[in-house]
Design brief:
Layout lengths: L1 E8 L5 H10 L2 H7 L5 E6 L6 E8 L2 H8 L2 H10 L12 E4 L8
Antiparallel strand pairs: 1-3, 1-4, 2-3
Length: 104
């Protein structure tokens, strides 16, 4: 299993705009419905820095690449750029999940 971590550098006053964009465009749900994603989250830094972290679980790096190649993702990334300090979305870092436990 693969976890992707995408860090978005956003000025503090634009954080709510990014969250609203993700919500209005239904990005997390769309990624689940139109890719092999198993789960996805968006998290806000508690330190007031404006950093936003988007994580997802994938069965493989190839399944994540399929999402990166999705034309809808590219167009939504274009919209997201206007919120970012550096203006680049890029690809997330990939991590192999080597151990996992769950409550249940």
């Amino acid at each position: 299993m693969i976890r992707t971590v995408l860090t978005l550098d956003v000025s503090l006053e634009r954080v709510n705009g990014v969250v609203e964009f993700y919500d209005s465009a239904d990005i997390l749900q769309y990624s689940l419905d139109h890719s092999e994603a198993l789960a996805s989250e968006i998290s806000l830094a508690l330190d007031g820095s404006g950093v936003i972290m988007v994580t997802a679980l994938w069965p493989s790096s190839e399944s994540y690449q399929g999402w990166l190649d999705n034309p809808w993702r590219a167009s939504s990334g274009d919209e997201l750029r206007k919120f970012l300090r550096e203006g680049e979305v890029g690809a997330g870092m990939l991590f192999e999940v080597v151990q996992s436990v769950e409550r249940g």
